[in-house]
Specification:
By secondary structure, the chain is of the alpha/beta class. 36% of the residues lie in helices and 20% in strands. It contains 17 helices and 17 strands. An eight-stranded mixed sheet has the order 8-7-9-10-14-15-6-16, with helices on both faces. Strand 1 and strand 2 form a beta hairpin. Helix 15 crosses helix 17. Bound molecules: flavin-adenine dinucleotide and iron/sulfur cluster (SF4) (2 copies). The site of one iron/sulfur cluster has 11 residues, from helix 8 and helix 12.
Amino acid sequence: MDMDEIVTGGLCIGCGLCQSIAGPERVRMVTTPEGRERPVAVTPIPDEALATINAVCPGTQIEGASPEALPDDVETDPIWGPAVPSTLSIAHASDPVVRYRGAAGGVLTALGQYLLRSGEVELVLHVKASPGAPLRSLATVSETPEAVLEAAASRYGPAAVLEDLGGVLAHGRPLAVIAKPCDIGAVRRLAEVDARAKALIRYGLTLACGGASDLGKSFEVLDRLGVREQDLRLFRYRGHGNPGPTRVETKDGRRFDLTYLEMWGDEAGWRIQPRCKICPDAIGEAADLVSADCWPGGAPQGEDEGFNAVLARTRVGVGLFERAVAAGALTVVRAIGFRDMDLFQPHQVRKKRAVWARLEGMRAAGMAVPRVERLRIAELAVGNDKGVNEEEMLGAQKRARAGRLGEPPAVFNE
Ligand SMILES: Cc1cc2nc3c(=O)[nH]c(=O)nc-3n(C[C@H](O)[C@H](O)[C@H](O)COP(=O)(O)OP(=O)(O)OC[C@H]3O[C@@H](n4cnc5c(N)ncnc54)[C@H](O)[C@@H]3O)c2cc1C
Ligand code: SF4
Ligand code: SF4
């Protein structure tokens, strides 16, 4: 598929890896009018680069964990995939500042900091608010624990975290990537075709992901508050508490807080991107370790001190988890099981069970679908009531035919 086909087919999530592979002189990420990061081929892409893009793009290929990465004591749950039971836990960053500023319990930030402090990696590639335009999110490379903390908490809008991965690898320094499950999947596939990525990307850490919103969702918030983007000093989606407010601050000193439920209570208003609606792996099966929210029922009842549900999947992830706990970077509160994860993430359970039928619906409508491997989606669909699969398939087919699973082509304006 060429870049336009991936984008108009509703398969692009805007990770930016195609720009990194082809180079910004050939592929340029742009922000679309809907508020999505999308690639545009500004000059023809050589066949070899296009083949690599097709081999790694999370719009065309979605794979679960590599069997060779998994330890002997791994268990594979039909919904949650592979995880080592001894790591399934409620945990939080031991440092109270990290715990407070992190999205939930600050586990990912604490792990990024631990990896730098221990010297296991020299760089952490992740995402932060753009300093000059805090509504927007930027890829960032942190070299110090302080910089990792600066980028703590969730950025729910578009974030092309991999757009300069090649530039980061060119430093020749070992790194960890903290990013969404689709980003981590892309990094894993890159490691299969790029020796530098294989040698240097030592860890892929992720979050459970309900979907990335269009930037339009954030603009709606500004409209509601009567704030212009150029007047913003701060736009923080969450963190500074668990979940913490969505906080908007202006340069002239105005401050607004929205609760998590005011921001996300109505699922119909999430404005999540088309690729997310058919995501076969929103729970990070290709990652070494996953850090998620752990509110029973999937929504916060109020604020708490900050906790994450954590699971490590690979040998590398288990080793990291155990060393970080032993070093005092993470505090484990209690052990949990896969069925606790169901309770914390009912929307992930629903989606994992529905995805196979949604992809079949797209296919029936004549749309391209990604290649999906080692994610058990067909097996899960077999376990559904027949009516559920039919409903999901027909719904997706109808949405596809109405153009709601595709997107307009992205346009580059110099
Ligand atoms: C789009 C999105 C959807 C989410 N949906 C769910 C959900 O359905 N269920 C759930 O349990 N949790 C969800 N989360 C994750 C949740 O908000 C917490 O981030 C997660 O529990 C990890 O918490 P933490 O305290 O360990 O993270 P922190 O310690 O705060 O670390 C978060 C890390 O993630 C990186 N990051 C933040 N946003 C992005 C982004 N957009 N792309 C790449 N990297 C990013 C940051 O740079 C930081 O390193 C979502 C997060 C995002 C960004
Ligand atoms: S998902 Fe990533 S690699 Fe694929 S087209 Fe979009 S930006 Fe490029
Ligand atoms: S739902 Fe899937 S495609 Fe969408 S941002 Fe999350 S991991 Fe990526």
